[in-house]
Specification:
With 435 residues, this protein is of the alpha+beta class. It has nine helices and 19 strands. Strand 9 (312-318) and strand 10 (323-328) form a beta hairpin. Helix 3 (91-106) runs antiparallel to helix 4 (109-115). Keywords: Membrane, SH3 domain, Transmembrane, Transmembrane helix.
Length: 435
């Protein structure tokens, strides 16, 4: 017999022996086999159910992502969906924005208030005053992300504004929340939404593609101002001028009507200007986005803290370089002006000393001049002119006065220069440009 045949015979004998042992001990072996089979069946069933549950969760997640569902409820784990920005994807939204911006340029308040459901008194006056300096808006692109509900959108409007007194247009970006009214028409909801929508807008605005877009516009804005000194000076002047005009209009609106007798009596009394009293406007600003608070007006300056959306500050000064000085924890700090909006203005009386500084108990002394002519009062600017530190065209420029501005006159000199008061200090302008 061959070696392979011997192995087969030996294996067969082992199998028969094992079978005989199982038969002899069937009372012990069979229950064990039964228990093993039951356990195996349970394990298989549990794994199958777990697999089905995972597949169901994956399907639900995919459906939610595809339909753009999600809310910024503020609870841990809830996230605003991050669909990509769409550019000019909805013609009806572009038409709405174009109509709104054209109305802003022309000062058409009827159209503005019909398209924007929220404009407080301050913003209404600001739009009216600003329209006097705007020639037109151009390069209008509307980027959108879906809003919290159907037919609502977070819109980021990128435009360029051309001012009447500037040669070059200036880029900018504005955020709006747009929805449908009961008549099926789109409108701009610019502030009446609740905290849930505020959080939703904030989360959407912090997404990478929106941050990149905002950074791009900010860089272009700063480059234009850096390259064009006159445009930079005009923007600084315009911000100060608009804030001043808004404050004066609000102050005038708060004065009650007077009788002729009261007016005549008051005309005989000393006026605020004669008594050295002037009016200051205290402005409160609010952060429109999460933004750094820095020690000085530079992106390289040390960070003090982060301003949150809706956080309010007292405005000290809005500077021409795109930064605003604010009061923070008892000292001065700086925030990018693009991330702040004025929410209230309060006019208060102050006494001004002859050095231009506020004082509670000093009175201004009459201006005197050793040469030239002039007895105080004001001069009106006939044409845009540089305001300089001394009576020379080579002297440092302190700013620019524009047609129609009034400057406090110190004296008109014989050398062709006029000495004036400007921002609390003595300055000079060419006499040919004032009257």
């Amino acid at each position: 017999m061959s070696h392979s045949d011997q192995n087969k015979t030996h294996g067969k004998d082992k199998f028969i022996s094992a079978l005989n042992w199982i038969m002899d001990h069937s009372k012990i072996v069979m229950p064990l086999v039964l228990v093993f089979c039951v356990l195996l069946t349970i394990i298989v069933a549990v794994n199958a159910n777990h697999k089905k549950a995972l597949e169901k969760e994956e399907q639900q997640a995919a459906m939610a992502l595809a339909s753009g569902e999600g809310e910024a409820s503020g609870e841990e784990g809830d996230k605003v969906p991050a669909p990509a920005l769409e550019k000019n994807a909805y013609p009806e939204l572009n038409q709405l924005i174009c109509s709104y911006y054209d109305a802003q340029a022309s000062g058409d308040m009827e159209t503005i208030t019909s398209l924007n459901t929220y404009l407080n008194e301050i913003e209404t006056i600001r739009v009216q005053e600003l329209s006097k300096y705007i020639d037109s808006y151009s390069v209008m692109d509307v980027y959108t992300k879906p809003g919290m509900e159907e037919n609502t959108y977070v819109a980021y409007v990128c435009s360029e504004v051309k001012f009447t007194d500037a040669d070059q247009a200036l880029p900018g970006m504005q955020t709006y929340y747009i929805g449908l009214n009961d008549a099926g028409e789109y409108f701009i909801n610019d502030g009446t939404y609740d905290d849930v929508i505020w959080n939703y807008i904030k989360e959407a605005t912090l997404q990478d593609d929106v941050v990149d877009l905002n950074n791009k516009i900010t860089v272009e804005y700063n480059e234009r101002l850096t390259q064009d000194e006159e445009l930079n000076e005009f923007i600084a002047y315009l911000k100060e001028k608009i804030n001043k005009d808004v404050g004066e209009i609000l102050a005038a609106a708060e004065v009650p009507e007077e009788t002729e007798a009261e007016t005549a009596a008051e005309s005989e009394e000393e006026t605020p200007a004669e008594s050295g009293q002037t009016q200051n406007v205290i402005r409160t600003v609010r952060a429109t986005d999460v933004v750094n608070i820095r020690k000085s007006d530079s992106e390289e300056a040390d960070k003090i803290d982060k301003a949150q959306v809706g956080q309010e500050f007292t405005l000290v000064e809005e500077r021409g370089n795109g930064w605003s000085e604010v009061e923070y924890n008892g000292s001065s700090a700086y925030i990018k002006s693009d991330y702040l909006e004025v929410v209230s203005e309060e006019t208060v009386d102050a006494v001004v000393a002859d050095n231009g500084q506020q004082s509670e108990d000093t009175q201004p002394e009459p201006s005197t001049a050793s040469s030239g002519s002039g007895n105080g009062g004001k001069v009106k600017v006939k044409e845009s002119v540089k305001i300089r530190k001394s009576a020379s065209t080579d002297a440092e420029a302190l700013g620019t006065a524009y047609e129609g501005d009034e400057l406090e006159l110190v004296m008109k000199q014989a050398d062709g220069w006029t000495k004036v008061k400007y921002n609390g200090q003595t300055a000079f302008v060419k006499s040919d440009y004032v009257e």
